[in-house]
Amino acid sequence: MKTQPELDNSTLQSLLESLRAPELSLNLVARRVRGAYGLTGEWRRLGGEREQNFQLVTADGASLVVKVASLEEHPENLAFQAEALEHIARVDPGLAVPRLRRTLDGQSTCHVADEERREHLLRVLSFLPGSHLLRQLKESNRTLGGEDLMALGTAHGRLARALQGFRGRAVPRKMPWDLSNGMLFGDWLPPHLPAAVTRIVQALLPRLAQVIHETLPRLRAQVIYNDFHESNVLVRFDPALTVNGVIDFGDMVHGPVVQDLAVAVASLIHWTPDPAFAAAALVRSYQRYMPLEAADLSVLKDLVLARLVLQVGLVSYQSAVHGRRDGDLDELQSLYTIAIQRISAIPDEDFIAGMLPSVISAPAPVAPTPAHPTSGLLHRREGVLGKTYTFYNEPLELVRGRGCKVYDAVGTEYLDCYNNVANLGHCHPYVVDALARQAGTLNTNSRYLHKEIVRLGERLSATLPPHLDTWIFVCTGSEANDLAVRTARAATGREGVVVTEHSYHGNTSVVAPLSLIDYDIKDKPDWVEAVPPPNLYRGLYREDTAEAGRGYAAHIADAARRFAERGPGMAALMIDSIFDANGALVPPADYLPLAYGEAKRAGALTIADEVQMGFGRSGTHMWGFEAFGVEPDIVTMGKPMGNGHPIAALVTRREIAETLQRASGYFNTFGGNTVSAVVGNACLDVLLGEDLQGNAGRSGTVLRAGLDELMSKHEVIGHIHGRGLFLGVELVAERASRAPAKLAARWVRERMKALGVLVSSTGPLGNIIKIRPPLAFSRSDASHCLAALDRALAEIPDHLRAPGG
Asked: Are 598 and 553 in contact (CB under 8 A)?
């Protein structure tokens, strides 16, 4: 096993020396604060581990903390903290953390000389009211209940979320409390372990070394707070616990998210009789803002133990070597020692029970409930809406959702493998919180200036080719595609639009004729031309056809000639990169470049419909068209943009947009409204901060590999289409003839619903199982889906497997 070098005693000594707080006189500090900040008032001393702290209450009532750093403190570390605090203030202004007060000349720190003329860094932060959790627990002699732990976990998750995307120009120095620095495996530790845990720790260290040096570097990482414990959280009990604030950002590092959580679990589990329950409550509430993967949770227990061992070792070391005494830490030593004994004795599977998504191997079907309330609701619905489209033979009444799970009116849980509208996962708390805050502040249209719509456009532009620089925000993908066609017509002076057969692009009066999935192709208007989709499994040109991409693209040239002969001319080629309605087709690599080339030669504009594959679903690119090296003239986007909130957009070149404005102008009352813009930005925060595109790639790879295995097992699977987290499983009566098994696909869809997994059947022949889950889809979710599909395929009735079935 390859490990990082262990820290020797001299390195440890150097690291711990930086923990010594300076001892400057109050007069020196007060004079310097008056000169650098223009602040005066009433002073009092506060405690501190490696900084000298004072509280200053000014004449106008402002309460501030003045912090004097040790000589060993690196300026880059304090600059990093300042940048982090200002980042949090921008991202989540309601989060109670200290706010930085800058000097009169705008600096984040100043210098103050001690009596020996040595220069210390000084900074001023806002003072947060409240009492430390440790003090409250000791004074009230109470334990933490489930509601208390959930409140703490939620506050911690919100802080972790606020730090997502923060990089900082400065780099934090090596920290004694960072598990990845190898300190835990130095020769300093064994002599300073409490006797009660020496044998336990010696047995644990090889496993901890493997986890820290080999597993942790592969897990999702960001800047983490790394210090959520009893002395840094300000609370009140009234009677339930409320978190008033979080202080002391001196231990921040760039590290795995699960390490951040492990610090909190290690610090708080001993305040309840059941440490496994306490851990579960903290983890579940933390994930309201910071969802974790199975790989994260699988090492949580190890990291909790590692933090506890480091804690008891360092406190004992400082006491023995430096003679340091800290009443609170010394008192906690016995609790941490007991926690090591208790946590190490809990089986791994018991420790994480309730934290991981459940994995099924052979789930039982859900029995129908007599007199199900849904039947009455369906009758009432038909009385109001008529016999409009619903999913499944027995429609579902869904009442709530979270992540990749939805729940019906009787409490049945379903794994949602279909709804890409909830791109980030249903009811993502970060997005819901952003929506609610803005809805309670102001919602108005984009004729007024507001920064969120500008910021959203700027951030999205950064993900697209540079020539796409002008945005028009609307409410739905149909509106975006409608506007794209109108724009192309205004820019070209032509009318005709080319789409692929059996396509879907929306339901307005302009794009409904472009959605051939909904009507007979012989009824299409003269301004629509349909070309064969690039289906390499059962299309005109297949896997074994030379230059299949060129063959499919040639049909676009033919369509352009027909337009020219009839008179309307070709205004646009509208195409998506996954051909959703055709069953998640992946075209030949050269198809889109050749297709775009034919459109350009005809003088038409190219429109990339990214409503389905946009926002990271491919797992490799933000936008589906990027995988093929093309640059469209217009890009449209919708569904996943707002995670369920109605927001959509069109982006194009400035000169193209200006032709539309000159021709007719365009305004949409709700398009880009204040709440929608905030939601769009919040969705980008989550998409980028949680690396959901990367997750789509990772989970999609697992899901595709599992489908390939099922194909080798079940003859009814003829082909697997798609990429990332957009996959289609084509069912056939027999592989030789490729005869479609439409009724079998419908049966599988209904059976999987009974097994607690929601999918759809689609395709021109109705024989393709569509799997298109939220991007939060985990490897465990993939296992769940595959197990249900495996069972459903095995149970297809024989008469549905025959040709024509």
From this structure: yes
Q: Which of 616, 667, 676 is nearest to 439 (CA)?
A: 676
pLDDT digits (tens, 9 = 90+) for 14-36: 555 555 789 999 999 999 999 99
| β-bridge partners, 294 | none
- What six digits make up the tokens of 40? 């005066």
CA distance to 476, 581, 584, 650, 651, per residue, from 500 (Å): 21, 10, 13, 21, 22
147, 237 in Cβ contact below 8 A?
Answer: no
| CB neighbour list of residue 384: distance below 8 Å, 6 or more residues apart | none
Q: Please write down the long-range contacts of 530-533, taking CB distance under 8 Å and 24 or more positions apart.
A: 530/498, 530/499, 530/500, 530/501, 530/503, 530/559, 531/498, 531/499, 531/500, 531/501, 531/555, 531/556, 531/558, 531/559, 532/500, 532/501, 533/500, 533/501, 533/502, 533/503, 533/579, 533/582, 533/585
**What is the DSSP track for 743-776?**
HHHHHHHHHHHHTTEE-EEESTTS-EEEE---TT
What are the strands, taking DSSP E only, across 195-239?
Answer: 221-224, 233-237
Say whether 238 sits in a helix, a strand or coil.
coil
Give the tokens for residue 93.
């202004």
Residue 364's pLDDT is what?
35
Alpha-carbon gap, residue 464 to 468, rounded angstroms = 7
Count CB-CB contacts under 10 A for residue 451: 11
Question: What is the rounded distance in angstroms from the CA atom of residue 529 to the CA atom of residue 532?
Answer: 10
Question: 3-state DSSP call for residue 241?
Answer: strand
Question: What pLDDT does residue 2 have?
Answer: 38
| DSSP per-residue codes, 389-409 | --SSSS---EEEEEBTEEEET
Type of residue at 643: N
Which token pair is 31? 């004079």
Q: Could you count the other beta carbons within 10 Å of the beta carbon of residue 145?
A: 16
* Cα(68)–Cα(124) distance, integer angstroms: 9
Burial class of residue 411 (count of CB atoms within 10 Å of its CB; 0-12, 13-18, 19+): exposed
User: Measured between alpha carbons, how far is 518 from 503 in angstroms, rounded to an integer?
Assistant: 9
> What contacts 24+ positions apart, CB below 8 Å, involve 235-241?
235/130, 235/131, 235/132, 235/133, 235/136, 236/130, 236/131, 236/136, 237/136, 237/140, 237/142, 240/147, 240/148, 240/151, 241/144, 241/147, 241/148, 241/151, 241/152
Per DSSP, helices labelled H in 602-645 are: none
Residues in the chain: 805
**Rounded CA separation 793/713 (Å):** 10
Chain centroid to Cα 152, Å, comes to 21
Residue ranges, the chain, pLDDT below 50? 1-7, 356-372
Packing angle between helix 674-689 and helix 451-461, nearest 10 degrees?
Answer: 40
Q: How far apart are CA 4 and CA 183, in angstroms?
A: 10
What is the structure's pLDDT at 422? 94
Task: State the Cα–Cα distance between residues 461 and 438, nearest whole angstrom.
Answer: 23
Tell me the C-alpha distance between 194 and 337, whole Å: 7
Which residue in the block uniquely carries the two structure tokens 């003072």? 127
Strands 241-246 and 253-256: unpaired
Chain segment 166-190, per-residue pLDDT in tens: 887 776 666 778 888 888 888 888 8
Please give the backbone phi and psi of residue 24, each rounded to the nearest 5 degrees, phi first: -85, 155
The residue written with tokens 């796409």 in the block is: 468
Contacts of 803 (CB under 8 A, 6+ apart): 733, 734, 737, 739
Peptide bond into 764 cis (omega under 30): no
Output the pLDDT for position 386: 84
What is the rounded CA–CA span in Å between residue 726 and residue 719? 14
